[in-house]
Amino acid sequence: MINRRKFLAGSGAAALSALVLPTAASAFFAEAGKHPLGVQLFTLFNIIEADVKGNLKKVADIGYKEIESAFSKLPGYYGMKPKEFASLCTELGLSWKSHHVLGAPFKMPKGMKMPTGADGKPLTLPAHMRNLRDDMQQLVDEAAQGGIPYLVCANIPTESLDEIKSATEILNKTGEACKKAKIQFCYHNHDMEFKQVDGQIPYHLLLADTQADLVKMELDLAWATKAGVDPVTLFKAHPGRFPLLHVKDISKDLSTLEPVGEGVVDFKPIFANAKLAGVKHYFVEHDMPKDAFASIAVSYKNLRAMGI
Q1: Distance spanning both ends of the chain, measured CA to CA
Q2: Could you list the residue range(s) of the whole structural domain that residue 223 is in?
Q3: 0.70 exceeded by the pTM?
Protein backbone atom coordinates (compact mmCIF):
# COMPACT_ATOMS: atom_id res chain seq x y z
CA MET A 1 0.00 0.00 0.00
CA ILE A 2 1.37 3.47 -0.91
CA ASN A 3 1.49 5.85 2.06
CA ARG A 4 1.25 9.64 1.88
CA ARG A 5 5.00 10.24 2.07
CA LYS A 6 5.72 7.81 -0.75
CA PHE A 7 2.92 9.29 -2.83
CA LEU A 8 4.30 12.82 -2.39
CA ALA A 9 7.79 11.60 -3.20
CA GLY A 10 6.49 9.90 -6.32
CA SER A 11 4.57 13.02 -7.28
CA GLY A 12 7.72 15.07 -6.88
CA ALA A 13 9.62 12.66 -9.11
CA ALA A 14 6.90 12.88 -11.71
CA ALA A 15 7.03 16.67 -11.62
CA LEU A 16 10.82 16.61 -11.99
CA SER A 17 10.55 14.22 -14.92
CA ALA A 18 8.22 16.70 -16.60
CA LEU A 19 11.08 19.17 -16.63
CA VAL A 20 13.77 16.73 -17.66
CA LEU A 21 11.85 14.29 -19.83
CA PRO A 22 8.81 16.11 -21.27
CA THR A 23 8.00 13.30 -23.70
CA ALA A 24 7.93 10.67 -20.98
CA ALA A 25 5.91 12.94 -18.71
CA SER A 26 3.37 13.57 -21.45
CA ALA A 27 2.97 9.84 -21.95
CA PHE A 28 2.53 9.37 -18.18
CA PHE A 29 -0.29 11.89 -17.96
CA ALA A 30 -1.85 10.66 -21.21
CA GLU A 31 -2.27 7.26 -19.57
CA ALA A 32 -3.84 8.76 -16.44
CA GLY A 33 -7.44 8.30 -17.63
CA LYS A 34 -9.99 6.12 -15.92
CA HIS A 35 -10.59 3.55 -18.64
CA PRO A 36 -8.75 1.53 -21.26
CA LEU A 37 -9.80 3.02 -24.59
CA GLY A 38 -10.61 1.09 -27.72
CA VAL A 39 -10.84 1.61 -31.48
CA GLN A 40 -13.50 0.32 -33.87
CA LEU A 41 -11.39 -0.98 -36.76
CA PHE A 42 -13.86 0.18 -39.41
CA THR A 43 -11.96 3.44 -38.90
CA LEU A 44 -9.08 1.75 -40.75
CA PHE A 45 -11.15 0.24 -43.55
CA ASN A 46 -9.27 0.43 -46.87
CA ILE A 47 -5.87 0.61 -45.17
CA ILE A 48 -5.65 -2.07 -42.47
CA GLU A 49 -5.52 -4.91 -44.99
CA ALA A 50 -2.18 -3.77 -46.43
CA ASP A 51 -0.38 -4.56 -43.16
CA VAL A 52 -2.69 -5.89 -40.47
CA LYS A 53 -0.03 -6.41 -37.81
CA GLY A 54 1.76 -3.15 -38.52
CA ASN A 55 -1.43 -1.11 -38.46
CA LEU A 56 -2.66 -2.73 -35.24
CA LYS A 57 0.72 -1.91 -33.70
CA LYS A 58 0.19 1.75 -34.64
CA VAL A 59 -3.14 1.64 -32.82
CA ALA A 60 -1.45 0.17 -29.73
CA ASP A 61 1.41 2.68 -29.92
CA ILE A 62 -1.04 5.58 -29.64
CA GLY A 63 -2.16 4.13 -26.32
CA TYR A 64 -5.29 2.18 -27.16
CA LYS A 65 -5.74 -1.09 -25.27
CA GLU A 66 -8.92 -2.54 -26.76
CA ILE A 67 -10.30 -3.13 -30.23
CA GLU A 68 -13.61 -3.83 -31.83
CA SER A 69 -13.26 -5.57 -35.19
CA ALA A 70 -15.43 -5.20 -38.27
CA PHE A 71 -15.65 -6.62 -41.76
CA SER A 72 -12.69 -6.04 -44.06
CA LYS A 73 -11.68 -6.69 -47.63
CA LEU A 74 -10.03 -9.91 -46.46
CA PRO A 75 -12.09 -12.97 -45.52
CA GLY A 76 -12.49 -14.03 -41.91
CA TYR A 77 -10.92 -11.66 -39.41
CA TYR A 78 -8.57 -9.55 -41.55
CA GLY A 79 -7.51 -12.70 -43.37
CA MET A 80 -7.16 -14.79 -40.21
CA LYS A 81 -9.06 -17.41 -38.25
CA PRO A 82 -10.58 -16.25 -34.94
CA LYS A 83 -7.92 -17.76 -32.68
CA GLU A 84 -5.14 -16.51 -34.95
CA PHE A 85 -6.45 -12.94 -34.86
CA ALA A 86 -6.96 -13.13 -31.08
CA SER A 87 -3.36 -14.29 -30.68
CA LEU A 88 -2.07 -11.40 -32.78
CA CYS A 89 -3.99 -8.90 -30.67
CA THR A 90 -2.59 -10.37 -27.47
CA GLU A 91 0.93 -10.23 -28.90
CA LEU A 92 0.50 -6.50 -29.53
CA GLY A 93 -0.95 -5.77 -26.09
CA LEU A 94 -4.48 -5.31 -27.41
CA SER A 95 -7.59 -6.90 -25.96
CA TRP A 96 -10.12 -7.99 -28.59
CA LYS A 97 -13.45 -7.13 -26.98
CA SER A 98 -16.07 -7.01 -29.70
CA HIS A 99 -16.90 -7.75 -33.34
CA HIS A 100 -19.41 -6.20 -35.75
CA VAL A 101 -21.60 -8.20 -38.13
CA LEU A 102 -24.53 -7.33 -40.38
CA GLY A 103 -28.01 -8.34 -39.24
CA ALA A 104 -29.26 -9.03 -42.76
CA PRO A 105 -28.01 -8.49 -46.32
CA PHE A 106 -27.06 -4.82 -46.54
CA LYS A 107 -29.68 -2.40 -47.80
CA MET A 108 -28.91 1.29 -48.30
CA PRO A 109 -31.54 3.35 -46.44
CA LYS A 110 -33.68 5.68 -48.54
CA GLY A 111 -32.16 9.10 -49.03
CA MET A 112 -28.68 7.99 -48.01
CA LYS A 113 -25.59 7.52 -50.15
CA MET A 114 -22.88 4.93 -49.68
CA PRO A 115 -20.08 6.53 -47.61
CA THR A 116 -16.80 7.26 -49.35
CA GLY A 117 -13.33 6.38 -48.17
CA ALA A 118 -10.20 8.54 -48.02
CA ASP A 119 -9.76 7.90 -51.74
CA GLY A 120 -13.12 9.53 -52.44
CA LYS A 121 -14.61 6.32 -53.82
CA PRO A 122 -17.88 4.87 -52.46
CA LEU A 123 -17.51 1.96 -50.04
CA THR A 124 -17.75 -1.42 -51.74
CA LEU A 125 -18.90 -4.26 -49.52
CA PRO A 126 -16.86 -7.46 -49.85
CA ALA A 127 -18.61 -10.40 -51.50
CA HIS A 128 -17.63 -12.68 -48.59
CA MET A 129 -19.66 -10.72 -46.01
CA ARG A 130 -22.10 -12.80 -43.97
CA ASN A 131 -25.11 -11.77 -41.91
CA LEU A 132 -27.10 -12.92 -38.90
CA ARG A 133 -30.25 -13.70 -40.85
CA ASP A 134 -28.47 -16.28 -43.00
CA ASP A 135 -25.32 -17.23 -41.07
CA MET A 136 -26.12 -16.57 -37.42
CA GLN A 137 -24.81 -19.73 -35.79
CA GLN A 138 -21.56 -19.66 -37.74
CA LEU A 139 -20.91 -16.05 -36.75
CA VAL A 140 -21.66 -16.76 -33.10
CA ASP A 141 -19.47 -19.88 -33.10
CA GLU A 142 -16.54 -17.98 -34.61
CA ALA A 143 -16.87 -15.19 -32.05
CA ALA A 144 -16.78 -17.82 -29.31
CA GLN A 145 -13.66 -19.37 -30.85
CA GLY A 146 -11.97 -15.98 -30.70
CA GLY A 147 -12.92 -15.53 -27.04
CA ILE A 148 -14.74 -12.25 -27.74
CA PRO A 149 -17.08 -11.12 -24.96
CA TYR A 150 -19.34 -9.06 -27.27
CA LEU A 151 -20.92 -9.59 -30.68
CA VAL A 152 -22.65 -6.57 -32.21
CA CYS A 153 -25.20 -6.21 -34.98
CA ALA A 154 -23.81 -3.23 -36.90
CA ASN A 155 -26.82 -2.61 -39.12
CA ILE A 156 -30.20 -4.08 -39.98
CA PRO A 157 -33.02 -2.68 -42.15
CA THR A 158 -35.74 -0.84 -40.16
CA GLU A 159 -37.59 1.23 -42.77
CA SER A 160 -40.96 -0.50 -42.43
CA LEU A 161 -42.88 -2.15 -39.62
CA ASP A 162 -42.34 -5.50 -41.33
CA GLU A 163 -38.58 -4.90 -41.41
CA ILE A 164 -38.63 -3.88 -37.75
CA LYS A 165 -40.54 -7.05 -36.84
CA SER A 166 -38.05 -9.16 -38.77
CA ALA A 167 -35.15 -7.30 -37.15
CA THR A 168 -36.57 -7.95 -33.70
CA GLU A 169 -36.85 -11.67 -34.40
CA ILE A 170 -33.28 -11.86 -35.71
CA LEU A 171 -31.90 -9.91 -32.74
CA ASN A 172 -33.71 -12.00 -30.13
CA LYS A 173 -32.69 -15.24 -31.81
CA THR A 174 -29.05 -14.13 -31.98
CA GLY A 175 -29.18 -12.98 -28.37
CA GLU A 176 -30.26 -16.47 -27.31
CA ALA A 177 -27.46 -18.10 -29.32
CA CYS A 178 -24.91 -15.69 -27.88
CA LYS A 179 -26.06 -16.37 -24.34
CA LYS A 180 -25.45 -20.09 -24.87
CA ALA A 181 -21.96 -19.22 -26.12
CA LYS A 182 -21.38 -16.93 -23.09
CA ILE A 183 -21.25 -13.84 -25.30
CA GLN A 184 -23.22 -10.63 -24.80
CA PHE A 185 -25.07 -9.57 -27.92
CA CYS A 186 -25.62 -5.86 -28.68
CA TYR A 187 -27.19 -3.65 -31.33
CA HIS A 188 -25.43 -0.63 -32.88
CA ASN A 189 -27.45 2.31 -34.18
CA HIS A 190 -27.13 4.83 -36.96
CA ASP A 191 -29.48 7.81 -37.21
CA MET A 192 -32.03 5.96 -39.35
CA GLU A 193 -33.44 4.02 -36.37
CA PHE A 194 -34.69 7.32 -34.94
CA LYS A 195 -36.71 8.29 -38.03
CA GLN A 196 -40.43 7.65 -37.64
CA VAL A 197 -42.01 4.69 -39.41
CA ASP A 198 -45.82 4.83 -39.40
CA GLY A 199 -45.70 7.00 -36.30
CA GLN A 200 -43.27 4.72 -34.47
CA ILE A 201 -39.58 5.18 -33.68
CA PRO A 202 -37.73 1.99 -34.75
CA TYR A 203 -35.09 2.29 -32.03
CA HIS A 204 -37.75 2.46 -29.33
CA LEU A 205 -39.46 -0.60 -30.79
CA LEU A 206 -36.18 -2.51 -30.85
CA LEU A 207 -35.59 -1.62 -27.21
CA ALA A 208 -39.12 -2.62 -26.22
CA ASP A 209 -39.44 -5.82 -28.25
CA THR A 210 -36.05 -7.41 -27.62
CA GLN A 211 -35.16 -9.11 -24.35
CA ALA A 212 -33.14 -6.67 -22.26
CA ASP A 213 -30.75 -9.34 -20.99
CA LEU A 214 -30.19 -10.88 -24.42
CA VAL A 215 -29.96 -7.74 -26.57
CA LYS A 216 -28.12 -4.78 -25.15
CA MET A 217 -27.06 -1.65 -27.02
CA GLU A 218 -23.92 -0.07 -28.37
CA LEU A 219 -24.92 3.58 -28.62
CA ASP A 220 -23.23 5.52 -31.42
CA LEU A 221 -22.98 9.02 -30.01
CA ALA A 222 -22.48 10.89 -33.29
CA TRP A 223 -25.42 9.25 -35.05
CA ALA A 224 -27.63 9.80 -31.99
CA THR A 225 -26.61 13.46 -31.94
CA LYS A 226 -27.36 13.79 -35.65
CA ALA A 227 -30.82 12.34 -35.00
CA GLY A 228 -31.44 14.91 -32.26
CA VAL A 229 -31.47 12.29 -29.53
CA ASP A 230 -30.19 12.91 -26.01
CA PRO A 231 -28.15 9.85 -24.92
CA VAL A 232 -28.70 10.62 -21.24
CA THR A 233 -32.47 10.44 -21.73
CA LEU A 234 -32.00 6.97 -23.22
CA PHE A 235 -29.77 5.96 -20.31
CA LYS A 236 -32.39 7.05 -17.79
CA ALA A 237 -35.17 5.22 -19.63
CA HIS A 238 -33.12 2.02 -20.03
CA PRO A 239 -30.48 1.91 -17.26
CA GLY A 240 -27.78 -0.70 -17.62
CA ARG A 241 -28.61 -1.48 -21.23
CA PHE A 242 -25.64 0.27 -22.87
CA PRO A 243 -22.42 -1.64 -22.12
CA LEU A 244 -20.69 -0.29 -25.24
CA LEU A 245 -20.30 3.21 -26.66
CA HIS A 246 -19.15 4.31 -30.07
CA VAL A 247 -17.31 7.46 -29.09
CA LYS A 248 -17.65 9.49 -32.26
CA ASP A 249 -18.01 13.19 -33.04
CA ILE A 250 -19.75 15.19 -35.76
CA SER A 251 -19.50 18.69 -37.20
CA LYS A 252 -21.77 21.59 -36.26
CA ASP A 253 -23.84 21.19 -39.43
CA LEU A 254 -24.19 17.45 -38.67
CA SER A 255 -22.77 16.51 -42.06
CA THR A 256 -19.17 15.45 -41.37
CA LEU A 257 -17.71 13.06 -38.82
CA GLU A 258 -14.82 14.47 -36.78
CA PRO A 259 -12.18 13.26 -34.32
CA VAL A 260 -13.57 13.05 -30.79
CA GLY A 261 -13.63 16.47 -29.15
CA GLU A 262 -13.46 18.35 -32.44
CA GLY A 263 -17.21 18.40 -33.13
CA VAL A 264 -20.45 19.19 -31.32
CA VAL A 265 -21.25 16.00 -29.39
CA ASP A 266 -21.71 16.96 -25.73
CA PHE A 267 -19.61 14.26 -24.12
CA LYS A 268 -19.53 15.61 -20.57
CA PRO A 269 -23.08 14.64 -19.48
CA ILE A 270 -22.83 11.37 -21.40
CA PHE A 271 -19.69 10.29 -19.57
CA ALA A 272 -21.07 11.58 -16.25
CA ASN A 273 -23.97 9.13 -16.67
CA ALA A 274 -21.90 6.19 -17.94
CA LYS A 275 -22.44 4.20 -14.75
CA LEU A 276 -26.20 4.60 -15.06
CA ALA A 277 -25.98 3.43 -18.67
CA GLY A 278 -23.91 0.41 -17.71
CA VAL A 279 -20.99 1.40 -19.94
CA LYS A 280 -18.08 -1.05 -19.89
CA HIS A 281 -16.13 -0.18 -23.04
CA TYR A 282 -15.42 2.95 -25.09
CA PHE A 283 -14.63 2.46 -28.78
CA VAL A 284 -13.45 5.45 -30.80
CA GLU A 285 -14.72 5.40 -34.36
CA HIS A 286 -14.26 7.75 -37.32
CA ASP A 287 -15.64 6.22 -40.49
CA MET A 288 -12.77 6.05 -42.98
CA PRO A 289 -11.20 9.52 -42.46
CA LYS A 290 -8.47 10.88 -44.72
CA ASP A 291 -5.84 10.12 -42.07
CA ALA A 292 -7.12 7.46 -39.69
CA PHE A 293 -4.12 7.45 -37.38
CA ALA A 294 -4.04 11.23 -37.04
CA SER A 295 -7.75 11.14 -36.20
CA ILE A 296 -7.57 8.44 -33.54
CA ALA A 297 -4.48 10.09 -32.01
CA VAL A 298 -6.41 13.36 -31.59
CA SER A 299 -9.39 11.44 -30.21
CA TYR A 300 -7.18 9.65 -27.70
CA LYS A 301 -5.58 12.89 -26.51
CA ASN A 302 -8.93 14.65 -26.16
CA LEU A 303 -10.55 11.76 -24.29
CA ARG A 304 -7.69 11.62 -21.82
CA ALA A 305 -8.03 15.37 -21.35
CA MET A 306 -11.70 14.75 -20.52
CA GLY A 307 -10.58 12.27 -17.86
CA ILE A 308 -11.84 9.21 -19.70
Answers
A1: 25
A2: 34-305
A3: yes
